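Progress against Task 2.4 (sequence-to-structure conversion) is shown through the following example record, which the project officer requested during the mid-term review.
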Amino acid sequence: MASWMIQIAAVMLSLLISWSHQKKDPVLYCSACRAIANELSYSISQVDPKKMINVGSFRLNADGTLNDKKVPLARSETYLSELLEEVCSSMSDYALYVHPDTQEKSYQRFAPRGNGAIASFPDIDNFQFNGIDSSNALKFACETIIEDLDDDIISLFSQSTKHVAEELCIGVSDYCKDAKQEL
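Structure tokens generated for the chain above:
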């Protein structure tokens, strides 16, 4: 009797897992993945490249020397972990964008950053502001991605990878494997 119950529990668990994977909106999760890469890249670019941080063990060797290493602050695991804790709060600066020619949907940043580069932003008329539910869904997707991939994200950003959004959203996570838009 116990094996019968275990088999039913296993079937129910597999159905629940497959159902939860099917519920993920590909546009939402691909856009959240891209937004994470975009926000982290921007935050890293704002750090002075000359700032360094000591990493490694702070134990003394037998001969009295210390084995520590200096790495750029912006690429340190400590700094990247701090950025990951805050990155999802910027998802309120994103909204659903419908491309005027192709009608393809994606979440894009509509709010300019502090440096005032407004010219590169898409036309505000093509954004759909569907209230707080829309930004909450993107924030939830962001938090889910970070919870699932935090070590991979830190690893990618600690190396100075050129196409980090493509690597993260297609290579590591498959969230954008079917996306037609360029990363």
